[in-house]
Amino acid sequence: MVAAICWGKGKTVTVEEIEVDPPKATEVRVKMLCASLCHTDISSIQGFPHNQFPLALGHEGIGVVESIGDEVRNLKEGDFIIPTYIGECEECENCVSGKTNVCLTHPVRLTGLMPDNSSRLSIKGQKLYHVLSCATWSEYVVVDVNYLTKVDPNINLAYASFISCGFSTGYGASWKEAKIETGSTVAVFGLGAVGLGAISGAKMMGASKIIGIDKNEKKKEIGEAFGMTHFINPSGSDKSPSELVKELCGMGVDYCIECTGVPTLLTQSVEATKVGIGKTIAVGIGAEPVAPFGLLAMLFGRTLKGSCFGGVKTKSDLSIIANKCQKEEFPLQELFTHEVSLVDIGKAFEFLKQPNCVKVVIRM
Question: The pTM is what?
Answer without folding.
Answer: 0.95
